[in-house]
Each structure stands twice: as C-alpha cells, then as structure tokens.
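Sequence in, structure out. Go.
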Amino acid sequence: MGGVKGVVLDASILLGVSVGGGHSGSPTSLLPGAEYLLRGLRHSKVPAGISYEEGLSTAEVNLLQDKVKLYSFDSFFLRSGKAADLVHEVSMAWGDKEGSFMYIVSDYKKDPFLGLDSTKWITVILRHPGQESKDDIIFASTSKIPRTIFINKVEEVPFIICLFNKKSMGKDVLIVGYLMKPSRGEDFAKRGAFPWNPTQNGLIFVPITYELPISSQVENIDGLLLKATDEIVSAEMNSSSEFTNRILFTKGMQELLRWTEQINCPVIDPCSNIYSILDRLKIQQLLLGLENLNSEGQSKIRGPHFLKLSCFGESQLEKRLVEAKLSLPTIVKPQVACGVADAHHMAIVFKVDDFKDLNIPLPVVVQEYVDHSSTLYKFYVVGKKVFYAIKKSTPNGDTLMKLSEGNELKPLLFDSLQSLPMDKENTQSGDIKSKSCGTNKVINLQLVTDAANWLRSTLDLTILGFDVVIQDGTGDHVIVDVNYLPSFKEVPDDIAMPAFWEAIRDKLDQAKTMAT
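Output:
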C-alpha cells in the first residue's frame, strides 16, 4: 500500500474568528498553528490543497486564495459541501495513483466526510478546544493504520503524515526528527532536504516542535538531527568547570535531551561531540594535531597561530604576541564560537595599543591574520563525502592597512555573519584550476581531504565545515574556522541532498548495529 499521495486542508482548520459567516465584521485570520502547517507542506513533497465551500465571506476566500498562491497549493471549491464533491475535485486534479488521500477537517464539520472511501481516504479530525485527548497520537505503536484519526492541534499533522507513510512503506523506512531555528529549517526544506515521503534511501523527516509533548514526538522517531547551537541561551567561558556545565540550553531543549537519553534515541550529533566546536580555543588547540598529516617536501596544513586573552590590558601583551608567533595585524574573536548573540563580533587590530580599548566580549582568541590574496576555500564534510567551494575573502594585511589609514588605523570591527572587510577594487573569481597562491601552488586537495577525514574522526561529527586559506609566500594551507552542520549551500542540491541523506542513514544504521 502506498503512502499519503495528497493532503487536503479544509478551511475550518485554517480560518479563525469569522469562519462560517459568523461574527460579521470581525477580522479574518488564520488559526494558531495554521501557518506552521502550510509552510511545512510547501516543501514536504506531498501534494497539498485547500478546500472551501459556500458561506465564507469575501475576506475569508481572499485569504485562502492568497495562501494557495503563496504556497503553490491547489484550491478545491466544494459546491455542495459533501464528500462526493471532494472526491471528484481531488481525483480530477491529482489522479488516482497508488496511496491514500488525507482530508483534514474540524470536528464541527466532520459529519459529511465520515463516509469517504476508507480504501483511498484518511480522515483527520481536529478536536474543538476543550475536547482534547492525550491519547490521540498513539497509532504509531499499532499494527493497523486507522482511517479516521483525531488530533488536538494542527501541529500534529506532519507527524500523522510521516507515521502513516512509514507504516505504509515498511519497517526499513526511518523517521528522522529535526530541530533547528525556523529560518535554518526553512532553508534546508527549500532545497528538498526534509521530505515527508521516503527519500531514495528510506528516510522521512519531521520537524520537532515545542507545541506538542516532547515525549510523544521522541517515541515516534528513529533518530534526531539536532542543531544544538540554535537552542543555546547562554555560554560561560570564564568558568573553570567542565564546558558541559557552562552551556545553558532552552527548557524545551533540555527536555528533548532527557527524553532522547531515556529511550536511547540516536542523536546526530550528540551535544558531547559539539562542545569543542563551541570553543575557539579548544578548536585551535585541536588543530595543532594537523602536524601529523604533513610530509617533507609537500604543502603544509595547519591551524593559525593563536593566543588566548582574558584581559585586554595586559602589561606584557606585546611580548606574549611575539611568543605566540603573532604579528600585526591580527584578528580578535570571542572564545565562544556560536550560539550567543555576540559570538561573531570580531575585530582586526593593527596596533598593540588598540587592544586595551577593544569592545569584543572576553575572553578572546587572538588569531594570526593570514595573507591569502582574498581567496577562501570552504570545505564541507557530509558523512564520507567531502565537497568544497571557492569564495571571495578579506584582502591581505597591507591592503587592509591602506583601507584603514583614513581611520588612523583604528581596529576594524565587524560581524562575521553579516559583513567582512573587503577590497572592492581587487576581488578575484575563478575556478580551482586557475587559483594559485603566492608561490604558484594550487590547493592540495588530497592534503585537505586528509585533514577533513581527520577532523571528522577526531570530532566524531557527521556533518561539519571548515575554511581554508593558502598563505602567500609559504603555501601553507591554514584552517581558519571550523563549524558543524553548515548549510553547504554552495554544493548543488542534486549532489548535496543525496550525500546528506546517506550520511544520516549511515549514522542511524551504525547506531542500530551498536545497540544490538
């Protein structure tokens, strides 16, 4: 039996205030959770439509049609408001391929649709407020799939669809819950990363939401894809305690982690594996291990020279910079690498005296500024696959100094997520074959690939990214930044998404093998 081949949303589960023609003159709006469902369906790879009938106000019809257009849905006008109309309109639009259609309707309008063909239709009924039941999401543990399902909130619909698809497709299909900030999830979904129908290797993706009980969601997934840094409330770097005790997650995240541990749900990737990524000092120390990959007579790969500062007013600062092999200009970064608002507030400093007045959150990591002819190589490790892209970057130190002369060489302050100091008159572009460093050496892809595999193994991360620059003069390949679960948006979707799914499936299969 096929899965859900199309979803029809009745207007009654979307519209608020004046639905059905009542409350004349009241503003028309969507019910809570409706927009969440519409956004999710748009990129779910499940055909979707909105149905309505006579009796709605012009404002209500216009609102529904606006959503149909915005989300590229189909629109079904049911003249009689009966099941026969629905079946006819949907079959004309979507055909009669294998699987079941799903109709989602509010309980006060359910009666005409309870007679839908039980072999081709699933009816999902949204309960009235005050009539909720804690037992509604239970059919995942049953062998028989019910044809009529009651839900308490529209946020349950993605789970209902995904659970139905899993049971229809067989036990080899796995449901992956994912949690990340909405904008990040939307970006991934737009690229087709999170379908509600099985991928080519048997994965179904469903968003985790704090609007539903965490326990029932975790119990119904086979693994969790987690961007934990999106759930950080605060990160304390001055404490001498273990780093795990210095990160405060949202209450919802804390509950989610408790439940995944309680029922042994695999997490991609566990928080214990990402703590090094959150600490720029730990990353710099870890990159010292790259030395073991270098061979005499070959390009060298390394991390930048660095120094931790807990205070900008140190009397021996200049001496400490020299001892750390740091020369000006240098780049100053907060020690906490991500998850908090000011983690990306940075500065490029040209004079030692200017450190004392810096407005960068302490403690900081002072990092070598590597001259690299404005060329940055972004590498992405997605499971066993390694991809890269070439990007424009900041200019060499002498150019930065010229750009800052009009400002008396005061530090350049910037947010690395929004803007970087750029030399607009000397930008470069091209492909890997045309790029060379100051010693006419192109990037050593084998060396960087070896480093990618070493980082993946050392950090034990499934998906990570890192930035490489090639130092002018020496040809050193310098890894200047490391992050986890990047968007890898520079990689074409038809290449990136299968690799993404393969990496997740391999991780879940590995976890299953280890558990048996």
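Check: Residues 17-25, 138-143, 425-440 have pLDDT under 50 and may be disordered. The radius of gyration is 27 Å.
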